[in-house]
Amino acid sequence: MLNKTRAQSLQQLTVATKDGAIMTEPIALLQKLIQINSVNGNELAVAKLLQAELEAADIPTKLIPYTEDRVNLIAELNHGDRVLGFTGHEDVVSPGDESAWTYPPFSGKVVDNVMYGRGTDDMKSGLAAMVLALIALKQSGFTHPIRLIATVGEEYGAMGARLLTEQGYADDLAGLVVGEPTTKILKYAHAGTVNYEIDSEGVSVHSSRPEKGVNAIDGLTTFAALEHHAFDKAPADPDLGPFRHSITVINGGDQVNTIPAHAFLRGNLRPTPSANIELVVKMLEDLVAHVNATTNAKLTLKVLHRFLPVHSDKTGHLVTSANAAIASVTGKPAELAVAFGGTDASEFIKSTNHFDVIVYGPGDNHFSHQVNEHIDLNSYTTAIKIYQEIAKRFFE
């Protein structure tokens, strides 16, 4: 139950349409978003809810489908040549074992000023805060161009951001604010991502005569043993530090007394400007070739996704104006840092237009993808004010 002082502060954050009707209160909007199950799909419901909020405030929107139920949202506040972008994603990851949650993962349960649910932290709170900031700017008479970009599929594939980039929605951006949770830290760079799969083909026989077959798992275990040091010569980056890599999925066999004819693993690389995508993929290809040449393994590499690292000038206008905005709202500037998780910005920066990117959003990214994911609601409502102030200072 929210106390009286807290309820009053939330009332002050409500926004009105041009005819004076009160919009959805911030906590209620976030709760509605959390109650939409948008696990790797079904973003249409999220887009329509946000569209209704924005259209009620007389902010034009456009729904841009990737598939029938996976729909991006674009909202335009004003027009001009120098556009500031706000972006967040509509999808969430699976909650996993729902019985392990203290409160149902799609309930948006509020306890002691904390909301629980899948997406509270990553990142429906950031997305909702950007929407409400846009509406508040509209009501204040703000005249500069802001583009809200809400995407599908960021958690696996970033297909929404890719589609919007291809359609030109990054071509006139002068800066981009990504609303991922950052634990009060202002992030000016993040690593890229390469997701890959290695398929291993063997020959299936009865396990009593393994010498007559080829165990597909053996090739993968050889690869996995060598992978640990395969990237030792990848250079460290001055900002993003050492190159990071992991094997994250392995699967093979279906019967205990049968030599498996097929197995696969998946892994993840985190390229940086120094250890770039081309370099680390070449190292990966060389490792696969080495295992195939020195064993009886038949491994095939598939690169599933390639996302660029993002690096902005930490003394540039976007970073400095954003940090001045944060200081004006919170009383002190944020610590500057880098991130190792990727964002949709990796797709948006593929535009021929050059612009800086920052990542700053409500919540604590240590809670992302976790059981009992949650957000302190003070962080969320403060972000609404910060995004407004970032817009104002960016255009000063």
From TrEMBL:
This is Probable succinyl-diaminopimelate desuccinylase. Belongs to the peptidase M20A family. One of its GO terms (biological process) is lysine biosynthetic process via diaminopimelate. It comes from Lacticaseibacillus paracasei (Lactobacillus paracasei). Keywords: Amino-acid biosynthesis, Cobalt, Diaminopimelate biosynthesis, Hydrolase, Lysine biosynthesis, Metal-binding, Zinc. GO terms for molecular function: metal ion binding; succinyl-diaminopimelate desuccinylase activity. Pathway: Amino-acid biosynthesis; L-lysine biosynthesis via DAP pathway; LL-2,6-diaminopimelate from (S)-tetrahydrodipicolinate (succinylase route): step 3/3. Residues 188-292 form the Peptidase M20 dimerisation domain. Its EC number is 3.5.1.18. It comes from the Bacteria. It is an enzyme of class 3 (hydrolase).
